[in-house]
């Protein structure tokens, strides 16, 4: 909430239901809240929807960080007598104010989710009062902390403030902040105004982003853990170019573990996930189209989370055999993720927002890989390898609980969507309810469609390069470049940071190109896909020729994966372009066939690198170069970004036995006459 009125600063009021270029601020507020929107802001257009997404994510991160950090300060101060100094009383006061501010954040998130102010005017006033006191009190406390530091530094012997002086300063912070927060409450000085609320399609996109993020953290954490589980190998008859000497960039190299798993077996373990992953793609797409994407996505992520937390037990009790079974079961759960999300996005996201929100959602893969690699290295170093599976699996369970409360399969079934957003979606999409009368999937038309073949080819190329990097880059950095586990996690995550930045940026560029008519949808998808294939192919091979120059290798891999991010504004959006009605099926087919490379590539890498040497890895990257280039050429020739004819498959009229119907009607008339007589 914000102050607003003749004697207070103006509030930023926004209610974004469109694309940031159609409606004025506050237009979508319910009638009972219109009096709370200052007339000044009705002359401005609403902000783009990705502003809302940014605020939502920032609030969640700040809330969790604030609870942990400030709670830790209060706990340390209360348990450690040596730290109960006058200066630290100011730190304690600041932590209390910050926690007060933190209590507002759940209220904000709930308001943004349901689309109105929970509690009406009273809820708005309570939110604003708490925010005013905590915000002003924290600001004044920071000023007093700076004053205390100045006194201590300028006069270290006699300049320190006493307990009495500090208590008076703390009392002043509360006496100053309280009246200036209470006066607007009674509209004596200004008044409080409502914040903007986040459109439901943006909330869905954020939760979709977090779904893929969780899926990838659970998927890739084993790639880090396996480097400390197995006995370390790196030997060959010609060691001159095969083994890099440990450098002083980090604190020593990875020492390995106790499991005698060959490189071939490690490849099988890493690829076993994709065996289950392939199986549930098409069933997941069909279920999502028939019954909605909410539960198909949610239950899939939940089952993956449960088996992730069971992974340490499987390793300790059943060695590699149980681990392989557990990874297959994880894949079965996660296989529904992309098909279900495609159905949800097709139901919620208009075409002119597809690049931005689609890139946001699909960018969860890069962020999840970043977190999975970076945090796994830190957690393994600090707490042991088992902790990473408990941590990431637990996050998946928490995500599920939030998702089932916030998200719905389509706008029609959502109880909290605002009428203005529903009207906007009807205008941009058309039918916003799930088509329960959708005819049977036109398999023949889909499987004989030439752009569909091009899409599958591009997906194979993307997955071949991507899965090599996701599953085996940590092994390359541990075995060839001799990174320690902590450094391995850091340097393995850098390429995906760049990939995420490029994927989001390319989404904005693609939407701009289509909206301005610079290129057609088809050519935009082809340009983005070509950039995402040819660039990574070149830099991937280049990294293998950089030898043991660890900095150069990391830079080349970072550029390689960064360019691959353009896929998410290219062929990854083609299923939504080609068939909104069957987007789940198209995504299931393409992602399912592409995921076969997830089975092949880790196992093939294990077979091709028995000694884990640089020369063996160079051949791996040359093979990836060929696959990326060939599949990209196929896509650029035959792909399409237009709606395909099979999207509107004709509904076959049911066969009717008219003679039977006539006999039935005649019999009913006869019985009616008998009863009347």
UniProtKB/TrEMBL annotation:
It is found in: Membrane. Keywords: G-protein coupled receptor, Membrane, Receptor, Transducer, Transmembrane, Transmembrane helix. Residues 200-644 form the Major facilitator superfamily (MFS) profile domain. It comes from the Eukaryota. GO terms for cellular component: plasma membrane; rhabdomere. Signal peptide: none annotated. It is a multi-pass membrane protein. Pfam families: 7tm_1 (PF00001), MFS_1 (PF07690). One of its GO terms (biological process) is absorption of visible light. GO terms for molecular function: G protein-coupled photoreceptor activity; high-affinity L-glutamate transmembrane transporter activity; sodium:phosphate symporter activity. Its main location: membrane. Residues 69-186 form the G-protein coupled receptors family 1 profile domain. The chain crosses the membrane at residues 56-77, 89-106, 126-145, 166-186, 198-216, 295-315, 327-350, 357-375, 387-408, 490-514, 526-545, 551-570, 582-605, 617-638. Belongs to the G-protein coupled receptor 1 family. This is GM26698. It comes from Drosophila sechellia (Fruit fly).
């Amino acid at each position: 909430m914000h102050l607003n009125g003749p004697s207070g600063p103006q509030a930023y009021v926004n209610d974004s239901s469109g694309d940031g270029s159609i409606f004025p601020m506050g237009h979508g507020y319910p009638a009972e809240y219109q009096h709370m929107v200052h007339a000044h802001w009705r002359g401005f257009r609403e902000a783009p929807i990705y502003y809302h997404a940014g605020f939502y994510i920032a609030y969640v991160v700040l809330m969790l960080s604030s609870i942990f950090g400030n709670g830790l300060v209060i706990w340390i101060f209360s348990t450690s007598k040596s730290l109960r100094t006058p200066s630290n009383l100011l730190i304690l006061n600041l932590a209390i104010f910050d926690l007060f501010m933190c209590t507002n954040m759940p209220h904000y998130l709930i308001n943004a989710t349901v689309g109105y102010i929970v509690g009406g005017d009273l809820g708005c006033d309570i939110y604003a009062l708490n925010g005013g006191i905590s915000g002003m009190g924290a600001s004044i406390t920071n000023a007093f902390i700076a004053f205390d530091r100045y006194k201590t530094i300028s006069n270290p012997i006699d300049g320190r403030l006493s307990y009495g002086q500090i208590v008076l300063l703390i009392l002043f912070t509360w006496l100053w902040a309280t009246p200036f927060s209470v006066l607007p409450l009674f509209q004596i000085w200004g008044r409080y105004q409502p914040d903007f609320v986040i459109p439901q399609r943006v909330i869905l996109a954020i939760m979709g982003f977090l779904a893929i993020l969780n899926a990838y953290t659970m998927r890739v954490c084993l790639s880090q853990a396996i480097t400390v589980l197995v006995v370390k190998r790196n030997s060959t008859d010609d060691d001159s170019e095969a083994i890099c000497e440990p450098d002083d960039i980090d604190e020593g190299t990875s020492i390995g573990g106790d499991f005698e798993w060959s490189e071939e077996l490690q490849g099988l373990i890493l690829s076993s996930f994709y065996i289950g992953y392939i199986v549930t793609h098409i069933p997941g797409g069909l279920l999502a189209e028939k019954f909605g994407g909410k539960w198909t996505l949610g239950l899939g992520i939940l089952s993956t989370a449960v088996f992730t937390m069971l992974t340490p037990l499987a390793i300790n009790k059943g060695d590699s055999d149980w681990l392989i079974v557990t990874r297959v079961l994880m894949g079965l759960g996660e296989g529904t993720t992309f098909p279900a999300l495609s159905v949800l996005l097709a139901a919620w996201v208009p075409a002119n927002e597809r690049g931005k929100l689609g890139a946001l959602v699909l960018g969860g893969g890069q962020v999840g890989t970043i977190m999975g690699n970076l945090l796994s290295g830190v957690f393994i170093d600090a707490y042991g390898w088992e902790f990473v599976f408990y941590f990431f699996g637990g996050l998946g369970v928490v995500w599920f609980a939030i998702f089932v409360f916030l998200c719905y399969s389509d706008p029609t079934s959502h109880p909290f969507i605002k009428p203005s957003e529903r009207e906007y979606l009807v205008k941009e999409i058309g039918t916003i309810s799930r088509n329960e009368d959708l005819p049977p999937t036109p398999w023949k038309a889909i499987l004989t469609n030439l752009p569909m073949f091009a899409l599958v080819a591009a997906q194979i190329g993307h997955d071949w390069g991507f899965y090599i990097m996701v599953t085996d880059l940590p092994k390359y950095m541990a075995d060839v470049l001799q990174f320690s586990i902590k450094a391995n996690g850091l340097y393995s995550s850098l390429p995906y940071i760049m990939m995420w930045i490029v994927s989001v940026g390319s989404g904005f560029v693609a939407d701009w190109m289509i909206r301005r008519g610079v290129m057609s949808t088809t050519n935009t998808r082809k340009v983005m896909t070509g950039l995402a294939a040819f660039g990574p192919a070149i830099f991937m091979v280049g990294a293998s020729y950089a030898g043991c120059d660890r900095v150069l290798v990391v830079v080349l891999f970072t550029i390689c994966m960064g360019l691959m991010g353009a896929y998410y504004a290219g062929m990854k959006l083609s299923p939504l372009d080609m068939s909104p009605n069957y987007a789940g099926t198209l995504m299931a087919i393409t992602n399912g066939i592409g995921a076969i490379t997830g089975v092949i590539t880790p196992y093939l890498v294990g077979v091709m690198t028995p000694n884990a040497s640089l020369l063996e890895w160079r051949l791996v990257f040359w093979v990836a170069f060929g696959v990326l280039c060939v599949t990209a050429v196929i896509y650029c020739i035959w792909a399409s970004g237009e709606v395909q004819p099979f999207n509107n498959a004709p509904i076959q009229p049911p066969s009717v036995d008219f003679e039977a119907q006539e006999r039935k009607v005649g019999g009913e008339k006869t019985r009616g006459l008998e009863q009347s007589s």
